[in-house]
Predict the structure.
Amino acid sequence: MSDAVATPSQGPLAMICGGGALPLAIADYVAARGRKVVLFPLIGAADGLPVENYPHHWIYIGQIGKFMRLARAEGASDVVFIGALVRPRILQTRPDLKALMIMPRVLKAFRGGDDHLLTGMARLLEDEGFHLRGAHEVAPEILAPAGVLGSVQPSEADRADIELGLDYLDAASPFDIGQAVAIANRHVLAVEAAEGTDQMLARVAELRANGRVRSAKGRGVMVKAPKRHQDRRFDLPSIGPRTVEGVAQAGLAGIAVVAGATVVAEADKLLAAADRAGIFIVSVPERRS
Amino acid sequence: MSDAVATPSQGPLAMICGGGALPLAIADYVAARGRKVVLFPLIGAADGLPVENYPHHWIYIGQIGKFMRLARAEGASDVVFIGALVRPRILQTRPDLKALMIMPRVLKAFRGGDDHLLTGMARLLEDEGFHLRGAHEVAPEILAPAGVLGSVQPSEADRADIELGLDYLDAASPFDIGQAVAIANRHVLAVEAAEGTDQMLARVAELRANGRVRSAKGRGVMVKAPKRHQDRRFDLPSIGPRTVEGVAQAGLAGIAVVAGATVVAEADKLLAAADRAGIFIVSVPERRS
């Protein structure tokens, strides 16, 4: 949590970018420190990302050799991997020669859950002399501070739901499963797996609409926490304005995240949207196992 | 698991019926033993159930006093609670005077998860001299026997996914959560909570259609197991022909359930549908904790 902030002396930063608003926000924070940023937006994941303010190279996720060549040419040895990424099918990743040579290990990395995929890619990069950094290491501004973040306070009942949610996420953690759960009145409404947080929240809204969730509107909480032992350099949970929208539509009272271990995208917009919707956002201390 | 089968000497059986095909199947099994059956189909849950072959009384789920009066008049002290039930909102349950008198306890029963709801109702009935029986106690024919049930065999990879699924369901069990999980290539695709098994399977089909699940079609398994410590008299997991349909549409290879602890609805139709679709159904031994 208390990693030293990267300094300009560390040379240019290569950012492999998936979708969403986070990659550019982080690029802006890093650039504001005076560090050079080179973007590698992923075709199929970061399409439409306005990358023109930075040197950039569009790549396919399988083009590991191309990435290494370009990053070295830019003088970048630090690499950040950030943004939304749909689990790719190997044959759609356009492996290049370098990737083909290490394919047995790539395949191994792909076979398990998401953590294995990312850990495998990290190891490939490290073996080639690159250093994988967490987005929160190069731009600590993106992490949620402790406490109630907006102007709405969680109730005692909400606190009980939050504790149950954290208990569940602890228990599910060994299974490399999604990082979010929706709970109301101590009743688990929905659990995230491959569908992602936004779709899990949409499900709660739907369950409410068709009568399968009958807790009163404005009760319950969406809890999001990092998996234990996950490599936080590329897989911290994140929330953003869209999360607030999803929580409001799901009829929940608020959002709980883990302080110092959650990325907050577009914090200003997020807090404004939460206050407007009467949604609380609380950032709780991390549990120690 | 080896409960003695109820005999005619035990008097008429009162069956409180939710939706689906199971209630009548069980009534038929019990009646075939020569035991009298009285149905209490629940308005809003069992609507459309063809109950005319049996003495029956339509009731609202809150009408506990009315149920007890009618069941006593029929000479029934054994009660079975069976069929699909949407978690009711208290104000829609039409509490009668008896229910109102015991409302503090009913409210308490409703507050926790499903298990608490059902356990609470069971206790209310027992306190009034009724005996709650499991459907599998009065009609053991409905339980899945051990082994591969259809003609399709699970592969070694399927067996590994099944073990992972059972591990997850064990871990999630204390949270009174859904009883099913979908896994492919040791990757958790979807977890059931309040939405029910059918909707969880529909989600996997959807995730596949929009590219978020990319394992090959015909890989993976839906695992369904009873929660630990749940009261099996009213809450055994069940599968039926619709489950096979959902699994086929989700692109999974098969279904795993726990032998002796899973209700199989319309077994003939289910096995025929599974064989036709190339879906395996395997019933694994129960784990001991």
